[in-house]
Amino acid sequence: xxxxxxxxxxxxxAPAATIAQRQSSTDRSPxxxxxxxxxxxxxxxxxxxxxxxNILDVKVSxxxxxxxxxxxxxxxxxxxxxxPLHIHFKQDEVFHVKEGEYLFxxxxxxxxxxxxxxxxxxxxxxxxxxQMSERGRMTVIFQPAGKMEEFFVAMAALDKVPDQEEIAKxxxxxxxxxxxxxxxxx
Length: 186
Known about the structure:
By secondary structure, this protein is of the alpha+beta class. Helix content is 24%, strand content 34%. The strands form three sheets. The protein has a six-stranded antiparallel beta sheet, covered by helices on one side.
């Protein structure tokens, strides 16, 4: 009796899940779009406060992809500064360095990246990066998009540089956790 109930439920649930997945991907606009160099799709230039002074431009928003992905271009204006050690609970992250040099810590491993290099940071692994050059630019991809766009907008909207406690609260409210200090560099 239980086996029949299981089979009936499975035969109904599996197609319903497949239809729901198709619907979420078909809810997107069938039109492509272009985000020009030096422009952000939404919000204009997002100037961060606190973690660093970098500028982010939304190139592809989670709004464009039903939350599946978000792409940002970061103009790095904070030599010898970067992010605190932190964890994304729900997103994988990819960085592609377009200009400059960066030091990354992923788990226990350190990597130096230069123009043309890319790095994958898996979700639930503590990581941090620091800008080593005077200036730099990176493409940053989050999959899924999560609350990253909202995080960057919140950091830019602050009326003063936040202290460490405020930064930790902002991270938590955007599905991340500060796990330690930024990378120290000479």
